[in-house]
Design brief:
By secondary structure, the protein is mainly α. The chain contains 12 helices and no strands.
Length: 181
Amino acid sequence: VLAYVSTLKACASIGSLDVGEELHAKVSEQGILKKNIVVATALIDMYAKCGALQRAWKVFDGLPQRDIVSWNVLIAGYVEHGLGDQAIKCFRLMDDEGIISDDITYTCILDACAAIMSLEIGEEMYAKVSKQGLLKENVVLGTAFINMYAKCLALERACKVFDELPERDTVTWSALNSWIC
């Protein structure tokens, strides 16, 4: 199992869709996909990173059980390939299934909001994150909010989030400065 996961990660990093598809056939023949979510998630990730998002969805959709990691991998794949609307649809489906979002999920969705300039959905994410208290402990998530607000031209909101962060790093300062200066 570890060998499959490692090889799928390698395929994803070098964009080797052909080898990844061969591995997909092998793990399917052996029934591993239905039993091992780690291998299935590595396969989804490989397809997403290789730009084969329909294949990624098909593997994901066939999973008997999905977890936050498999959802995040699929959502990140859509965001990475400029499909912010699709990422948000996946987020909604995940929410409908009762999977609780984490900081990775929110960071991806904020990137999707920034890409499609959806301040409304970004505000919805802010309310959810604030309710969960995630912003107080996560500078990366705070930076994602600053970036999303700035790209949606809500500079006052970006500054407000910046001011609310308990700590800031160079990336956070750069995110804000690139829009204000």
